[in-house]
Structure formats: C-alpha cells, structure tokens
C-alpha cells in the first residue's frame, strides 16, 4: 500500500513539473524571431541556388522555342552546359541579390506567421493548440497565407520585377507549406515525442515543400513567363492575362507543359524547405536562451 502511494505521488509530482512546450519557444522576442527567419531563408536559398537556376531555365524553355523540336528536359545535361559555358560559380550568379531579398522576406514571413497564429487562436472556436485538429489546420493554412502575402507586400520595393505578380502565387504556396508542415510535425511529435527536433523539422519541411510545389507550380511557371516575356526586345507571347497564358501553354505544349521543370523544383524544395524549417526551429531554440529573449 505504501509503495503504491509512493508511486502515485511520484507520478503526480512529475505530472505537475513544467515541461518545455513549443509555444514557449515561439513566444521569444521580436528580434530573435526576425533573425531566425531571415537567416533560415538566406541559408536555404544559398544551398539550393543551382537547382533554382535550373528550374527557371526549364520553366522558360517553351516561351520562344518550337515545341516540336524542343528537347526533353535533362537536369544533368543542362547543368553541364552551364559549367562548360560559364563555370561552376555561375550557379550562384546573383545570389547576393537573392539573399538581399530573401533575408527581409523570410524574416517578415516567419514573424508574421507567428503573430497571425496568435491572433487567430484568440478567436472563439479556434483556441487551444492540439485539441481540435480541424481548427489547427485552419489556423495554420490561413496564418500561412496571410504571412506570405504580408511578406511579399513588405518586401515588394526590394524586388519589383520578381514580385510584380507574386501576390497571386505566394499566398497559396506559403499557406500550403505552413499548414502541411505544422500538421505533419504535430502528428509526428504526438507519436514520437523523443525524436530529434532537427530530424522532425527537416523531414516535415521537405514533405511540405513537395506538397506546396505540386499544387502551385503551374501558377509559378505562368508568373515566371509573364515576367520575362518581352525581355531583350523579343516579341510578346502572352497577351491575355493569367488564364489566357494558362490556355496558351496547354494548347501549345500540352498539360505536361504546365509542369516543365518540376523535377529540379522537387530537388530544390526537398532540401530547401526542409533546411528553412530546420534552421528556423534550431535558431529559435538557440536565441530563446540568448540576451534578446
């Protein structure tokens, strides 16, 4: 009897001890959150810059080419061509400009996502993390979409050409990425709470990147071609707006044309998005213990 009382007492004592929660980490100060988000985005972009360039090359391949003679996309052949013609460093051409845009964009993106989550959870019916999966999914999806549009709007003057049509695609992309990541991460940690945070964030981030790219890639391809048409004095190809461009690509290149360059995009987002979330979570934990917390 005494032994059982002792065991029950020990269990009650352990149950009452404060446990580190994810919400405590997410409630770090503004400066650590901005630093974590910005560094994570810049680091990921630098790591995946070669694949990003290959994706863009394949996306615009059909703009001024005869579809009948257009070669089947080959990642290695195109990569070797770039190395032979421009050298290995060409894969990172313009990377400093990209980082100059990505640092503030990623900072605002992650910071605003945390704030939108907090605001949405204050709405009756959406409060309580982990208690209502549907409410959680709604918060993550809407919060991610709002964060993406906020970040695009805040950094718009820094990259006018690249972001001219970004609001049409960045909202859904970030919404899907954040909601899939949060859902997978919550499900994983509920079943295996002792797994490494780095591993969980990397794996869930990679899967969220695949889901987001699969859904939004056609829109990104259209956005890219509309941005680049008319460059270097070439004739304009797409003159009928977003949906007219979609119809033109499908009619001239088939449905497969909407996913031209999707494989290097997958190769980019699997490590890229995983690195972003992994770095962000790791830096949040690190900076939560620093002088800015």
UniProtKB/TrEMBL annotation:
Keywords: Membrane, Repeat, Transmembrane, Transport. One of its GO terms (biological process) is transmembrane transport. Its main location: membrane. Solcar repeats lie at residues 28-119, 196-286. Pfam families: Mito_carr (PF00153). InterPro entries: MCP, MCP_dom_sf, MCP_transmembrane. One of its GO terms (cellular component) is membrane. It is found in: Membrane. It is a multi-pass membrane protein. PANTHER family: SOLUTE CARRIER FAMILY 25. Belongs to the mitochondrial carrier (TC 2.A.29) family. This is Solute carrier family 25 (Mitochondrial phosphate transporter), member 23/24/25/41. The lineage of its organism: Eukaryota, Viridiplantae, Streptophyta, Embryophyta, Tracheophyta.
């Amino acid at each position: 009897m005494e032994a059982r009382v002792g065991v029950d007492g020990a269990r009650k004592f352990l149950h009452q001890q404060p446990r580190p929660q994810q919400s405590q980490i997410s409630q770090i100060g503004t400066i650590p959150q901005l630093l974590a988000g910005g560094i994570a985005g810049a680091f990921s972009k630098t790591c995946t810059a070669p694949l990003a360039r290959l994706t863009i090359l394949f996306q615009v391949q059909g703009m001024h080419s005869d579809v009948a003679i257009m070669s089947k996309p080959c990642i290695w052949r195109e990569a070797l061509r770039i190395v032979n013609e421009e050298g290995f460093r060409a894969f990172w051409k313009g990377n400093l400009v990209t980082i100059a845009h990505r640092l503030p964009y990623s900072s605002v993106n992650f910071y605003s996502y945390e704030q939108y989550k907090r605001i949405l959870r204050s709405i009756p019916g959406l409060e309580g993390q982990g208690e209502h999966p549907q409410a959680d999914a709604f918060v993550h999806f809407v919060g991610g979409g709002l964060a993406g549009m906020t970040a695009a709007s805040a950094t718009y003057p820094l990259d006018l050409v690249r972001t001219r049509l970004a609001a049409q695609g960045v909202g859904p992309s970030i919404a899907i990425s954040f909601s899939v990541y949060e859902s997978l991460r919550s499900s994983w940690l509920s079943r295996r709470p002792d797994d490494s945070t780095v591993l969980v964030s990397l794996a869930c981030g990679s899967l969220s990147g695949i889901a987001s790219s699969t859904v939004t890639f056609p829109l990104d391809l259209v956005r890219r071609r509309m941005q680049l048409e008319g460059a270097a004095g070439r004739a304009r190809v797409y003159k009928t707006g977003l949906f007219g461009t979609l119809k033109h690509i499908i009619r001239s290149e088939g449905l497969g044309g909407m996913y031209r360059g999707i494989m290097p995009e997958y190769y980019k987002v699997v490590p890229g998005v995983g690195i972003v979330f992994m770095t962000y979570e790791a830096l949040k934990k690190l900076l939560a213990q620093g002088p800015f917390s």
